[in-house]
Design a protein that fits this description.
This protein is of the alpha/beta class and 459 residues long. It is 40% helix and 12% strand. The protein is built from 16 helices and 14 strands. Bound molecules: ligand F0G. The site of ligand F0G has 15 residues, from helix 4 and helix 5.
Length: 459
C-alpha cells in the first residue's frame, strides 16, 4: 500500500480555538459593521483572513529568539540576518523594517516621484497605496488569462511581456523601475515563471530600467518553479531562489509570509548608492540602520525563517495543504481561481453569488455568509479592496471578485481544512437564495477595506 503524504513536522505547542453559535455570530458581525477586520479574534473559529504573521514558528526560531541581541547599534542579530540575506537571497545591502509596507515606504521614497508610472504584475494594495500616495501610477501588466478563474495555467501570475514592452516604449521616461510580485497575491497566489522573470529583466535592460521584486512569497514561487518549470526539477529551492533574485536590483520583503515570523520586513539591494539614500529614510521612518523597526530577537527569527522557509519538505507540506482545500472544493463543484495558489484559495464570488449585483459587493457578501455559517474568516479581494479611482473617485470594479481563504503556515490541520470546505459547501447549497449584499456607510480615503463600515441592502 502506498503511504499517504503527511506533514514534515509535529506539534509541540498548541493554542485553543473557541466555538460560537450562529446567533452569537449574527450579533458580532452586525456590531462589526459587516467588516470582518472589525471582529475580535475570539469571535473567529478558523482565521483565514491572512497568511501574514499568522504562521507557527519552529523550535529553532524560538531558540534563536532567546539569543536576540538588543543593542541599539551593531547587534549580532543584525549581522545574523545580513548573513542570511547574503547567503540565501544574494543581496549585499539590506535595511530591516517593521514589515513589508514599511520596506516599500523606504525604497519608494528613494525611487518614485510624482507623475511616475510603475508597471508590474498585480501590485499588492499597500504597494499600490505607496505608489498612489506619491501621485504616481501603478500600471497592471498581468497576463489576461489570470482573470479567467477556470483556466488552468502553471504560471498564471506572469507579467504580459507585450503589455510591459508597450508600457516601456510609450512611457519609458516616466518609469523608474519594473516591479515583479512573486507570487502574484492579487491574482490568486499564482506563481511567476523563471522564464518570465528573465524576460522581464531583458526588456527592462533594453530601456536601462532596474527591476524590483516584491518578494513576500518568493519561496512558494520557487517551489512552483521547481515542480512546474522544465529544467528546474533537479535544482534545490535555494538554487532557484538565488537565480530568481539574480535578475533583481532590489527587493522588498514582508517577512511575515515566507520567513514565517509574526512581524518583520526588509529592503535588500545590490547598489551602494540606493542603500545610502534609503538609509536616510530608514532612520527617519523605521529606526537606526541596524534594527530599523525590529527587535534583535525578531531579526534572529527571520534569519532562521529564511533558511527553513526555503527547504523543500516544508514548502511541499505547505503548498499541498492549500491544494488539499482546492481538492475538497472540487468535490463539491465550488468555483475558485484555478489552479490552487501557493498561500490561499480564492473562491470565485462572482460565479457563486451571481444574483447579488456587483455594486453590492459579492465577495464581501460571501465572506459574511461563510463567517455566519461556521465562524470562518476570509477576506474580500474585490471591489472594496480595489477602492476608488484616485482621480474620478468612482468605485473601481475589478475583473475578479474573490473571497480569499489564506492558509496560515504550519497552523491548521487537514481536519480544519475539511471543515472549511464543508462550511463553504453549505453556503454554496443556498447561494441562489442570496440576492442582496451590502452598501458602504463609511469609508477612508485610501485603503478603505480595513476600516469600511457596511450595512445590508434590504431586498
Ligand atoms: N506585498 C505583498 C505581495 C503582500 O501580500 C503584502 C501583504 C505586502 C506586500 C505588504 O506586507 O503586510 O508586511 O506590510 N499582504 C498581506 C496579505 C497583508 O494578507 O496578503 P506587510
Amino acid at each position: 500500500m502506498e503511504l499517504p503524504f503527511v506533514e514534515s513536522y509535529k506539534i509541540k505547542m498548541v493554542e485553543p480555538l473557541r466555538r460560537s453559535t450562529r446567533a452569537e455570530r449574527e450579533t458580532w458581525i452586525k456590531a462589526a459593521h459587516y467588516n470582518l477586520f472589525n471582529l475580535r479574534s475570539e469571535q473567529v473559529f478558523i482565521d483565514l483572513l491572512t497568511d501574514s504573521g499568522t504562521g507557527a514558528m519552529s523550535d529553532r526560531q524560538w531558540a534563536a529568539m532567546m539569543m536576540g541581541d538588543e543593542s541599539y547599534a551593531g547587534a549580532s542579530s543584525y549581522y545574523n540576518l545580513k548573513a542570511a540575506i547574503q547567503n540565501i537571497l544574494g543581496f549585499d545591502y539590506f535595511l530591516p523594517t517593521h514589515q513589508g509596507r514599511a520596506a516599500e515606504n523606504v525604497l519608494f521614497s528613494v525611487l518614485i516621484k510624482e507623475g511616475d508610472i510603475i508597471p508590474g504584475n498585480s501590485h499588492f494594495d499597500t504597494t499600490k497605496g505607496h505608489i498612489e500616495f506619491r501621485k504616481a501610477m501603478a500600471l497592471d501588466c498581468t497576463i489576461d488569462e489570470a482573470s479567467d478563474t477556470q483556466k488552468e495555467l502553471p504560471f498564471k501570475g506572469n507579467m504580459c511581456l507585450n503589455k510591459l514592452a508597450n508600457a516601456l516604449s510609450e512611457h519609458h521616461e516616466k518609469i523608474p523601475f519594473v516591479l515583479i510580485t512573486i507570487t502574484n497575491n492579487t491574482a490568486g497566489g499564482q506563481p511567476v515563471s523563471m522564464e518570465c522573470i528573465r524576460n522581464v529583466r531583458a526588456l527592462a535592460d533594453k530601456y536601462k530600467k532596474p527591476v524590483v521584486v516584491d518578494a513576500a512569497r518568493f519561496a512558494e514561487n520557487a517551489y512552483f518553479i521547481k515542480t512546474r518549470e522544465k529544467g528546474f526539477e533537479h535544482k534545490t529551492i535555494k538554487e532557484i531562489v538565488k537565480e530568481m533574485f539574480s535578475y533583481a536590483d532590489a527587493m522588498t520583503m514582508s517577512s511575515k509570509k515566507d520567513a514565517i515570523v509574526n512581524i518583520g520586513g526588509f529592503v535588500a539591494m545590490r547598489h551602494k548608492d540606493w542603500f545610502d539614500k534609503a538609509s536616510v529614510f530608514n532612520i527617519m521612518f523605521e529606526g537606526y540602520v541596524t534594527y530599523g523597526g525590529m527587535s534583535g530577537r525578531d531579526m534572529n527569527a527571520v534569519a532562521v525563517g529564511l533558511d527553513e522557509g526555503t527547504e523543500f519538505d516544508y514548502l511541499e507540506t505547505r503548498i499541498k495543504q492549500v491544494a488539499y482545500l482546492g481538492e475538497q472544493l472540487d468535490k463539491y463543484g465550488i468555483p475558485y481561481q484555478r489552479p490552487a495558489g501557493g498561500h490561499a484559495i480564492f473562491v470565485d464570488a462572482k460565479k457563486l453569488l451571481s444574483k447579488v449585483p456587483r455594486e453590492e459587493f459579492q465577495a464581501q457578501t460571501l465572506g459574511v455568509e461563510l463567517y455566519l455559517e461556521a465562524g470562518i474568516r476570509g477576506v474580500e479581494i474585490g471591489a472594496i479592496l480595489a477602492d476608488r479611482d484616485p482621480l474620478t473617485r468612482e468605485n473601481r470594479y475589478p475583473e475578479l471578485e474573490m473571497l480569499r481563504l489564506a492558509i496560515p503556515r504550519r497552523t491548521y490541520t487537514n481536519n480544519h481544512i475539511d471543515l472549511i470546505a464543508a462550511a463553504l459547501k453549505n453556503v454554496y447549497d443556498r447561494c441562489d437564495t442570496i440576492t442582496h449584499g451590502y452598501k458602504i456607510v463609511k469609508e477612508a480615503p485610501i485603503m478603505r477595506h480595513f476600516t469600511v463600515e457596511l450595512a445590508p441592502v434590504d431586498s
